[in-house]
Design a protein that fits this description.
Order of helices and strands: HHHHHH
Strand content: under 5%
Distance between the termini: 19 Å
Structural class: mainly alpha
Number of strands: 0
Number of helices: 6
Shape: elongated
Mean pLDDT: 83
Radius of gyration: 16 Å
């Protein structure tokens, strides 16, 4: 359970720590504030759209396989975000980080459902 809590906290930080950094991102990439705002929007939009898809995949393929796949996707997205020097690639990276953010609540519910009742 501690590992799951740490994973959910990390995903929450990946989503929220971008907000104060938007002006810095805009300056470093040489884009306007409106364009830099898409860094956050792309992440939230991907999370909203793909969360039900990932939930369905978890039901059909098994939760463990989907959670491991989500970890791979978020790792690739994070690596791409660190290495990129252009806004389009940063948006792709944030989209890759989006679905895991939306899915972070699913494993905790499935763990709670699979635990035996107390008493």
């Amino acid at each position: 359970m501690l590992t799951l809590a740490l994973a959910v906290t990390t995903l929450s930080l990946l989503q929220s720590l971008v907000v104060p950094m938007l002006p810095v991102i805009a300056e470093q990439l040489g884009v306007g504030a409106g364009a830099a705002g898409w860094v956050l929007t792309a992440n939230l939009l991907a999370a909203a759209v793909l969360t039900p898809v990932i939930g369905r995949l978890g039901d059909t393929l098994g939760e463990r396989r989907v959670v491991l796949g989500v970890l791979v996707v978020i790792s690739v997205g994070t690596l791409l975000a660190v290495l990129t020097t252009s806004l389009p690639l940063l948006l792709v990276a944030r989209v890759l980080q989006g679905p895991p953010t939306g899915c972070s609540r699913c494993p905790s519910r499935s763990c709670a459902a699979s635990c035996p009742p107390p008493g």
